[in-house]
TrEMBL record:
Residues 28-81 form the TIL domain. It comes from Nyssomyia neivai. Residues 1-17 form the signal peptide. Keywords: Signal. This is Putative chymotrypsin inhibitor. It comes from the Eukaryota. The lineage of its organism: Eukaryota, Metazoa, Ecdysozoa, Arthropoda, Hexapoda.
Length: 88
Protein backbone atom coordinates (compact mmCIF):
# COMPACT_ATOMS: atom_id res chain seq x y z
CA UNK A 1 0.00 0.00 0.00
CA UNK A 2 2.89 2.37 0.77
CA UNK A 3 4.35 1.84 -2.68
CA UNK A 4 1.02 2.64 -4.35
CA UNK A 5 0.75 5.87 -2.35
CA UNK A 6 4.32 6.88 -3.20
CA UNK A 7 3.82 6.18 -6.90
CA UNK A 8 0.55 8.10 -6.88
CA UNK A 9 2.18 11.07 -5.14
CA UNK A 10 5.06 11.08 -7.63
CA UNK A 11 2.60 10.91 -10.53
CA UNK A 12 0.62 13.87 -9.20
CA UNK A 13 3.81 15.89 -8.69
CA UNK A 14 5.08 15.09 -12.19
CA UNK A 15 1.72 15.98 -13.73
CA UNK A 16 1.53 19.25 -11.79
CA UNK A 17 5.05 20.19 -12.89
CA UNK A 18 4.07 19.68 -16.53
CA UNK A 19 0.82 21.63 -16.16
CA UNK A 20 2.47 24.47 -14.23
CA UNK A 21 5.15 25.04 -16.87
CA UNK A 22 4.16 27.89 -19.22
CA UNK A 23 4.11 27.32 -22.98
CA UNK A 24 6.03 30.53 -23.55
CA UNK A 25 9.20 30.49 -21.55
CA UNK A 26 10.66 33.85 -20.53
CA UNK A 27 13.98 35.01 -21.91
CA UNK A 28 16.90 34.18 -19.64
CA UNK A 29 20.19 35.97 -19.16
CA UNK A 30 23.62 35.06 -20.45
CA UNK A 31 24.62 31.46 -19.57
CA UNK A 32 21.15 30.78 -18.14
CA UNK A 33 18.42 28.32 -19.10
CA UNK A 34 14.75 28.16 -18.15
CA UNK A 35 13.70 25.11 -16.15
CA UNK A 36 10.27 23.97 -15.12
CA UNK A 37 10.25 22.76 -11.55
CA UNK A 38 13.93 23.36 -10.84
CA UNK A 39 15.64 23.43 -7.46
CA UNK A 40 14.48 25.95 -4.85
CA UNK A 41 17.77 27.84 -5.00
CA UNK A 42 20.59 28.43 -7.44
CA UNK A 43 24.11 27.11 -7.10
CA UNK A 44 26.55 29.82 -6.06
CA UNK A 45 30.32 29.98 -6.38
CA UNK A 46 30.77 30.23 -2.61
CA UNK A 47 28.95 26.92 -2.07
CA UNK A 48 25.91 28.60 -0.45
CA UNK A 49 23.15 26.03 -0.17
CA UNK A 50 19.56 26.77 0.80
CA UNK A 51 19.13 23.33 2.37
CA UNK A 52 15.69 22.56 0.94
CA UNK A 53 16.45 22.18 -2.75
CA UNK A 54 13.38 20.33 -4.01
CA UNK A 55 10.68 21.00 -1.40
CA UNK A 56 9.37 23.62 -3.78
CA UNK A 57 10.25 23.68 -7.46
CA UNK A 58 9.94 27.11 -9.06
CA UNK A 59 9.84 27.66 -12.80
CA UNK A 60 12.63 30.15 -13.49
CA UNK A 61 16.00 30.80 -15.09
CA UNK A 62 18.96 28.89 -13.66
CA UNK A 63 22.62 28.84 -14.57
CA UNK A 64 23.37 26.45 -17.43
CA UNK A 65 25.39 23.32 -16.74
CA UNK A 66 29.00 24.19 -15.96
CA UNK A 67 28.10 27.63 -14.53
CA UNK A 68 27.37 29.01 -11.07
CA UNK A 69 26.21 32.40 -9.80
CA UNK A 70 28.76 34.89 -8.52
CA UNK A 71 28.09 37.61 -5.94
CA UNK A 72 26.68 39.85 -8.72
CA UNK A 73 24.06 37.14 -9.52
CA UNK A 74 25.71 36.46 -12.92
CA UNK A 75 26.26 32.94 -14.22
CA UNK A 76 29.98 32.44 -14.69
CA UNK A 77 32.03 29.35 -15.60
CA UNK A 78 32.72 27.21 -12.54
CA UNK A 79 36.47 27.49 -13.14
CA UNK A 80 36.16 31.29 -12.67
CA UNK A 81 34.47 30.95 -9.27
CA UNK A 82 37.77 31.27 -7.40
CA UNK A 83 38.04 34.83 -8.80
CA UNK A 84 34.46 35.74 -7.86
CA UNK A 85 35.05 36.66 -4.21
CA UNK A 86 32.70 36.04 -1.28
CA UNK A 87 28.94 36.52 -1.51
CA UNK A 88 27.44 39.13 0.80
Amino acid sequence: MKIVFILLALGVCATYAQIACPDEKPACGVNEEYRCCGPACDEYCDGHDCGIRYFVCPNKCYCAQGYKRNNAEECIPIEDCSKAGPRY
